[in-house]
Amino acid sequence: MNSLTAAVLSVELDRMNSTAMTARRQLHLPPPPASTFPHQPGSLLSVQDLTLEEVSRILIRATALEHQDPLTRDRILAKRRVALLFYESSTRTRTSFELAAKGLGADTTLVSSLSSSIEKGETLKDTGLTLRALGAEAIILRHNSSGAPWLLEEATRLPVLNAGDGMHEHPTQALLDLRTIISHLRPGINHLEGNTLSGVCVTIVGDILHSRVARSNMLLLPRLGVQVVLCGPKELLPELAALTGPGISIERDLDAALRRSKVVMMLRIQAERLAGMQIDLEQYKASYQLTGQRLASFAPLALVMHPGPIIRGLELTAGVADGPQSVILEQVRHGVAIRMAVVERALKAGEREGCA
Amino acid sequence: MTALAIRGGHVVDPGGGIDAAKDILIKDGRVVEIAGPGKLKSANGADVLDATGLTVAPGLVDIHVHLREPGQGYKETIATGTAAAAAGGFTAVAAMPNTNPVNDSPDITRWMLAPERGAHIRVYPIGAATRGSKGEVLNDFAALKAAGAVAVTDDGHPILKDSVMRETLAAAARVGLSVIQHAEDTRMTQGASMNAGPAAFRLGLRGMPAEAESSLVERDIRLVTELRDARVHLHVAHASTAAAIAAVRQARRNGLRVTCEVAPHHFLLTDEHVAHYNTNAKMNPPLRSGADRDAMIEAILDGVVDAIATDHAPHATHEKEVEFENAPNGITGLETALGLCLRWLHREWKLPMGRVLSLLSAQPAALLGLKGRGTLTAGSFGDVVVFDPKAEWSYRVAETRSKSRNTPFDGWAMQGKVRWTISEGRVAYDSEANA
Q1: Which pLDDT tens digit goes with each residue over B383-434?
Q2: Which end of chain A, C or N, has fewer beta carbons within 10 A?
């Protein structure tokens, strides 16, 4: 992904404090680092590791696996070993990964930070090596530190599936969000191209700064032609968020953002990551809460999404969460299918290459 | 009496104004004669090093290293750190006081200088400015200086209180010591692990704003201005931001004694090099934006920067093999500084060889008043680096003499290979001897 071509910059050479004598020079600079990640073709560390072709393949496999007879499906990874390593609490992600792996016949084991030797000070590297020694063939990792999956993959050289790392990424969430969007806006399409979602505006609202879901979606959706609009207060949405990639802009006014949007993704304020930041919740709700009235006035046809967990009465009202535009539980359902596809990919990607 | 003659080389001694084919004679640790090829008068019986085709320069001087002793010998010892320094062409290093315990007393300073430490080259301890580097109570600078300290600093624990910093600058000036400040307003960098900016946002890491550095540099310069004492010397350690450099530039125009150093990683790398959470790209100050990096290059080329210093900061492998946010700050640098400076500053960016070497020897030595270092004029210490300026090679950290391997430059192309490093007339490094 990183270009190896040496960047070139010009430097104003201001000699002896003289403004009269300046020379313009072209300077060669050391190249940006070359990536050796992912080491394993089955790993899913970041949505940026996936080509559109690979994303398409995952969506196609998700649909096929979802429709396959469970009795034949569970032979696909029969008795293969998958470890779930969770350093943060989780309901949806953990359960759906577990159901996905089991649905393919794999044996799963869950290691969580509270009830394991992690409490005694064992490092991520040693925990990973231990799981590998116990026969794990892939590790699904949820971690509170951004970048932890890269460390784990480097240490174990096993396929690692990033189930959320700190404030960084949550690639399977972005894939299941994509599947949810496609199923409503482009039903039947499964081969993705750069313009598959052209003209679609997706607004992500709330605590963008601390959100790995936002980052993965910001990096994935524009590659299909989506205009991503970020909406939130300055404390939770710094201006430089728009520089994360192409196709991303900021709109501070929720009503204006809704008016453009076919999809609105609501985010929870991540109290556990605020690090002392004070948010006036009443003011926040007045500006950014998704209410039935707002929705009816500005985006009566938009899909309402939320990665969960939702806080009813904060980022959205109960009426919106349970209302006809909400696809929040559909997202959860798509999660199992997507995760079946990426778990299968984790354990089969190497094999496929080996056979080829 | 021991004597060593270095014959047939090309001497580049910016401090002594020499750039010519010369032979050098060192006796009893001092340069005694420098003469045209074959013209040494008193070289009879001296050991001879044949430097034909090689550059002979003053031994390099690094005024910012962490040797980790006392207290953290598993990362580095004075012996291993100075072995790495010698391999990199250095003959004098100034050691930061953030040891365990902190070097805030003459006893610890003397302990560091004791022959039992096994230093391969000259070590100059830097004393802590305040007791335990806690930023409250000033140490006895006269006593530290008498024990051998050449400057004071609280390094990684910058002095935030105006009153304490003002007192430090004034007290150090009275005894003729420089004050080195690691400029970081730590109130702005809590929980942050890299430079603030788009890269940090993308990586989901909390960022250290450039203002955390520049605002403290500006505060310190204001204090120097207010003190109105020509003896006050503020040295800005590892400047990394365009704004900090601009402040130093302005202070100098105003006639203040304010100097600064830049580390090779800050003129070569940017925060994009943190990609994939490489903990060997984690240090403090962090790798900055492309614009900041460009400003470092510009400042070196136009002469605002007084010294290249490595901030050699060894850490054990197990300490760096952790989550990025939990990894300690710092990278090693003693073995890569010369090769990177010649490869980039000299070859790519056309800074004359003499100026590159001056930034690595004469200027840092003068800055801290290290008498007899950084030059080859007669009477100076016999500190010499002999290197092949044309040699291109790749750095291999597996072969390092440091105890630690935390470098982002493993496998990088280097220019200029050290053949010998001579410390006070003794061969401290010989590239063809067994390590």
Answers
A1: 999 999 999 999 999 999 999 999 999 999 999 999 999 999 999 999 998 6
A2: C
Side-chain half-sphere CA neighbours of B58 within 13 A: 37
Q: With beta carbons under 8 A apart, name residues in chain B contacting A148.
A: 323
What is the Cα–Cα distance from B276 to A337, expressed in whole angstroms? 28
Size of interface A-B (CB pairs under 8 A): 104
Cα–Cα distances (Å) from A40 to A108, A126, A163, A342, in that order, read 20, 19, 16, 13
* B297 Cβ under 8 Å from any chain A Cβ: yes
Predicted local confidence at residue A19, as pLDDT = 34
**Beta strand spans in B29-166 (E):** 30-35, 47-50, 55-58, 60-65, 90-95, 122-125, 127-128, 151-153
pLDDT (0 to 100) of residue A35: 82
A22's CB contacts (< 8 A; 6+ apart) are A12, A13, A14, A15
Would you say residue A7 has pLDDT above 70? no
Distance CA A219, CA B204 (A): 13
How far is the C-alpha of B304 from the C-alpha of A183, rounded, in Å?
60
Q: What is the CATH number of the domain that holds B200?
A: 3.20.20.140
Please check whether residue B354 lies inside any domain of the structure: yes
* Pairwise CB contact (< 8 Å): B323 & A155: no
Structural domain of residue B229, as residue ranges? 58-367
Asked whether residue A27 carries a pLDDT value surpassing 90, the answer given is no
Query: Which CATH class, in words, describes the domain spanning A173-332?
Result: alpha beta
Q: Would the CB atoms of A244 and B198 count as touching at under 8 Å? A: yes
The yes or no reply on domain A47-170+334-343 and CATH 3.40.50.720 is no
In Å, how far is B158's CA from the nearest CA of chain A?
23
Tell me: the pLDDT tens digits for A39-62? 999 999 999 999 999 999 999 999
ipTM of this complex: 0.93
**Residue B295 forms part of a structural domain:** yes
Q: Is residue B119 part of a domain?
A: yes
Greater pLDDT, A190 or B35: B35
Instruction: Say if residues B351 and B358 touch (Cβ distance below 8 Å).
Output: no
Whether residue A168 and residue B203 make contact (CB cut-off 8 A), yes or no, is yes
Closest CA to A151 of A131, A118, A120, A123: A123
Identify whether the C-beta of residue A206 lies closer than 8 Å to the C-beta of residue B198. Answer: no
